[in-house]
Protein 1
Amino acid sequence: SISVVGISMTVAHTITQSNGTTVTIGSSGYTQSAGTFTGGDSTSHMDINDGSFTLSGGAFTEPGGNMNIERSFTKSGTPTFTHNSGTVIFDDSNGADDTTIDCGDITFNKVTLSKDSYATDLIISAGCIVPLGAGPTSSVTSDATFTNNGTITIASGTWTVQGQNANDQSANMTNNGTITHSGTGWLSTGG
């Protein structure tokens, strides 16, 4: 495993993550405009603490385990993004940081929304498809704004949206986009 302040790929270099490792990235985040990053298998992870993920060129294969992002996810241009059957988790482990998910035509395998620190806004941009999987639980503090301008999909089960903790039943959500649900349950707020 490795810990760095940031990763910036601006030339056609290659980074290959070994299976079973975690790449921990600090506040400078992950930026790629060229080159190739290949994540490892389901035992491999990436954790971007207090930073963002920006992909504008090259090829990025997500680690097959979890990829935690504390701030924003931005895709622009025509890079290649491969989900590698991993899960992208938008969290706030280092504090209350706003998140915008601007993923364009990227296909995610699964996304978890866990933004439950005080006043942590979460925005899903138009054109972005966010698959939450089966029976998902999303956390967004009641002091924040959760705005969906894209498409959220729920594979099956009940989607539970809760506030800062299981007892906070006042998560604040605005849906300007589409929510597609393939199961029998529906939205629940609270714990």
Protein 2
Amino acid sequence: LSYTDRYEPELVVDLATLSGSCIVAFGQAAAGVLTSETDAAAERLYAIQRAGEWTGERVHHPPVYDVYKEHLESGIADLKNVGGKTVGASTAGKFLEHFVGDVPWLHLDIAGPAFRTTSHAHHPAGGTGLGVRLLADYLSTHVATRSGTDSHGQIVSLDTPSNQTDRLMRIQRPTFQRPEPPAPNVAPTRV
């Protein structure tokens, strides 16, 4: 993350197991998504949350308010890497924010849903590969379309089909269907 000032990317996205706090907050149902609390970040959060709902790889945003910087202050070091017993995910987000500066960023804390001990809905037991479908959808629909051009510099619009759009949308949106709820145990009636 500290290389962002050298390379000046338009967006940084990282995935890791950060603090364990997101497991406590969300369990295996969702990954935490951390970013700065800015107007531009709100747009990124909305887009990644929509991608999560679309792909079945849900994310939720713990706040990364400026007040959490206090938890990282140290009398010895420039910055502590652990904020204390409370607001662990939020202080971890503040820690990451320190290194990315003003560069737009998203951190996905995938600790909870990255590995399942039992199968559930669309994930078998074991490693889930969480983030692959989520980021493919997020990058192909939000990031790529914000620029208005494809990788060849051609202007694109996702509102109307075109060759440029087809080139841009090489990654198909996955089809995700929630399983039907089980039928209630009702004895058949005779008429």
Protein 3
Amino acid sequence: RQINEFPSINVKLDKNEVFRGMTDFTIQKPGSRNWLWELIAYKMFLSEGLIAPHAEYVELIVNNNNFGLYLINDRLSKKFLERNNRRASIVIEIENKDPQNDFELDGFPLFNSERIPFIRSMNFNSNGEFSELRSMALHKFKGYISGEYEIAEVFNLEQVAKLAAMKELLLSSEIQYDEIKWYFNPITELF
């Protein structure tokens, strides 16, 4: 790393601290987030009612050293969901790092159904009320992968269609289905 570069870092502020409406965020070199394309994608997602982080470029100065423009964006948290007008719920993240492990979500690449990847669920309710909702969400998600459920029984097709259209509009390989945080709507019981 060059002396004039600042590493990308995760920041989690203390309980009563807030920076630009965020308490848990990343500071990243613009090139690590595909320069302006990712910021444009986030703005498009928000304009279509999809979940996206707050993101903006800031001038990064540390100990009087100016590192230039860096991208800050909030990380998945209860505040993130609230900013996106979503209720606290379960969010599923697929960790699929094997490029040979592809599957299609009715035509959209996802992962191989024979090798279900690690699925990490995040619960944004501190008192543990979501264990039943978590079980339902994981059952439906894995049930779709195994063929137990049809796509319309598990996913909000309008939202998935918007996401796929934006991926094509941006000609983006950056919008990876295995990197999406799949929010489980507790009202519709769909991702």
